[in-house]
Fold:
Amino acid sequence: MKDLDLQRILGSEHSDPGCDEAGELMDAYCELVARGDPVSDQFDAFVTHMRNCDACREDMEGLLAMLRDEEKSRQG
Structure:
């Protein structure tokens, strides 16, 4: 069994805010990650949701890819 599967079964110390609330934080989280900035504890519940929700995680990965591509385009 993978660690991620075990975490899903056992849960996390942080509550899962659900798709709507996580969606509201996604832009800010992805911008921090794309810039390489540290991610604060305020995103702990968001990260928990990303572990639990394949659809939201897929959206987040797409947004991160887009932000990284935009950064590469600007650099030249």
User: Anything to note?
Assistant: Residues 12-75 form one domain. Residues 33 and 69 are 13 Å apart (CA to CA). The helical segments are 3-10, 19-35, 44-52, 54-75.
